[in-house]
Amino acid sequence: MAANLKDYTNSLGLIPALGSVTLITMPSVLLLKIIFVTVISILLPVASSLLTHNFIISAILGLLLAIVSSFLVFFFLKPLQDLIKAAQSLESKSKDEIENLERQRDGAIAEKSKLDEILSTLVDGVVALDFNKNIVLLNKAAEEITGYTQAEMVNRPIEELVHIFYDQEEITPKTYCQSSLNQIAKLIGKDGKESKINLSTAQLDGGVQTNVFCILIMHDIAKEEELEKMKLDFVSMASHELRTPLTSIIGYLSVFLNENKGKIDQSELDLLEKSLTASQQLLILVQNLLSVNKIEREQMSVSTQPIDYLPVVTKAIEDLKDLAVQKNIILNFNPPSNLPKIMADPIRIPEVITNLIANSINYTNPGGKVEVSLQVSPNEVTTVILDNGVGIPKEAIPYLFNKFFRVSNQTQQASKGTGLGLYISKSIVEKLGGKIWVESEVGAGSKFYFTLPLAERKSEGAINNKTFTGHEIQAGALNY
Amino acid sequence: MNPQSKKILLVEDEDFIRELYVRQLTKEGFLVKSVPDRQTGLNLLKTETFDLLLLDIMLPGMNGLQLLREFKTQNPNSPMVTILLTNLGQEAVIKEGFELGAQAYLIKASYTPDQVVSEVKNALSGGQSTPPPNPAPTQ
Fold this sequence. Notes:
The complex is a heterodimer. Chain A is an alpha+beta fold. Chain A is built from 15 helices and 14 strands. In chain A, β5 and β6 form a beta hairpin. Chain B is an alpha/beta fold.
């Protein structure tokens, strides 16, 4: 706009002062025009009076000249008037534009403070990166997580300030900005400040215009972990405290029942028998909760040693004979003739086998059969528990070993189980280096398998004898 | 084995459990003394000899194994049989107990008092020196 005004005024032979009509310098062309008119209007009457010596003619000539020069002056100064007008209109126009610009600027500031306000209320840290992985924007939560201030971070490359690790491996911005991520990671910020975060990243499609390439959203999970720990501590404490009086209740009831069989009426004895059964179920629940608690705290310790497996299985069968007899179920065990020692935890492994056999008994109808057998292979012993019970629906099998999962099948007795036994068994077997799985068909029965490594693996001997190459052994390992 | 000639010391802080075990063991003819804490137990062990010690490994404010450790230091050649009374999930302490010379352990919650009595009989007759645990099924 200023350029146009200048052109316009130049065309008139004037140089304006913007926003004012004051002429700072009088341009030479206009000056000459005014001087010319002035000179003519003075010189012509003088000349005419000198030539005519007649006052009346001189006066008429002077009057004519005055009229002509007035016209001339008016004509010459017309552009100047136009300029004044134009300048006045320009002044009002520029005022509008400046006001408009001011409004736009205020609007932009309001937008930015709105965005800042929203970002600052977010509990998650937000960091925006440009194409060079420099930080262009971050919010207050990101400052807290990283330990840096806004001033320390903006326009700086993120990898100079913030380091992100998955497990032990550092992940560069190139990797985490390449694809959308959502993962728990460790963040190391200012002065080695460590935070455990859930990091989500997203790439921006319209980033070219805004020069924002990648957004990092950091969710601090320290508080959640603290709450989780408090929950686990509470479950652990409550379970321990529940177990002590329950042990007494079960002990006293079982003694009373043993001593009074035949002495009091069976219908009255039934009342106490049911109390005992319920107490035992409660105890199982409490013990399972404690076991799950240990697994979740990663405190479930197993220590393996070579053990004779046969007495463990025999003892479990012995212990569960009563339950099988009560339910009119045949419980069979076919011990193998030669069973090598296995590597297992002598305290934990009976829990697994007892649990699986009890499960089979519970989910088999009276008159059914539960069979336990052991299969020895060069590296491991597979324990198989077979029943001809109600079976497990196909769709339930993938979730069977999940915590608190229970088969919702009307053919199965709904009151049985806590949904924790198989989860605990799986955790134990896997900790011992084995595997656990099931084959089942509704109405036909179930076959549970779990493996435990042999104390002396035959294939290890093979390695020592250099019979196989490493490659062959790897392939073999994949087969089981 | 004649139970009447066998003396048992029970160290257990839970009153109800202690009374019940004493009742059942006495009923079987054992001579039973019971104490609720480590110090009383140690004092008793200094003045009397026992054939079998039933020791709760979780006593208030301390690990019951300290009693066993102190006793074994003072009487390294004692023939007294030790059975640990435990709860499920105390594997580390159980292993430590075995290293200190305990012969067996019983998971209190999983054993009825009568089963405890029969394990005591087994241990005293030199039968099953380390009975495998008998955890309740975890269905």
